[in-house]
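Exercise 7. Predict the joint structure of the components listed below.
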Amino acid sequence: MRPFALSYARPAVKSSAATPYTYDATRQLNVLPDGRPATSSRAVLLATGTTASTAGSKTHFDD
Amino acid sequence: MTVLVLTCEEDLTADMVVSTLHDLGVPLVRLDPADLPGSIALSADYTGDGFHGYLKTGERVVSLGSLRSVWVRRPGTPGTRAEERSTWLTAEAEQALYGMLTSTRARWMNHPAAAAQARYKPWQLHIAQRSGFTVPATLITTFPSVARQFAATHRDLVVKSVSGKHPGDPPMVLPTTRISPDADFSAVAAGPTLLQQHVSKQADIRLTCVDGHLFAARKEADPDEVDSRFTENSSWKPAEVPDRVRRSVAAYMTSTQLAYGAFDFAEDRDGTWWFLECNQGGQFGFIQLDTDQPIAQAIAAWLAADPLTCHSWPAV
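Solution:
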């Protein structure tokens, strides 16, 4: 028998946003192609959704 | 002294804090435990009456005795990027790393023992009641008959995950969902089920607590969706924290020994904040983006503080 709660599960929506940043081990943070910290771009933060409480990747979900 | 940040590389939210620590000139080492063994190496000796150890990641080496604080953000599981992965290797790596780190004098946000306990949602409800929060009637059961009785009593209900986790295979999400009191509850026997009185809310509240500093944000409720994580109908705005809630948060954080917690409340039409949960590792970046509340800065300041600084709660 399927657990009761699973009757209310929905398919996860996979985030299609690309991550336009890479990790810089020297600076210990992610940077944009022009070298600026990724967090300096509000647009990047919003577009990638990595700070939100829900979405699709391991950095999205609340713990 | 050094701040140790345990998180994955792609964690932009951690970057918000790392940038602030850079601005403050605070030495830090950031690493992902998933890289142990591999690009992370460690050693510790317990000889004589002392304990000495160090961690190495890339070209950085940090003495365990020089750690002022440890921030557990989104760490990977130790051993999971090793060439020969196994459950045994993960256990070995986890025991070595966290065993060594918890032997230090460093302050934790949050300590692994406190974090593990705080993840239990039934325990959260218990501590919330004891702390004076208003808590919706809740049932966790595997008895269909008890579920039916609870539904008959409270009528307007939601179901949510006990663990807070989403089903993984295939990838699914399990939002908090309103259910009919006349639902067929027989499948409750197939797994512990959490039913809760539905709070008719006018807004969602996310209150982020960094030690004694509270950052509350409010978002208008979406009439068509119970779970605010799945709505984008409006943005978060700063909110005032009622004194009663402030006192309850202080009691909760003291009971749980957490340095950081993200509380979710439902605000009803009378303005009462109903406790839903406290996520010891809850996200805060989305709140800071909407409200400009300096949460990352508060975390950085806490991490940068003297190791012997005690938790401090302002008088309320």
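Discussion. DSSP finds eight helices and 17 strands in chain B.
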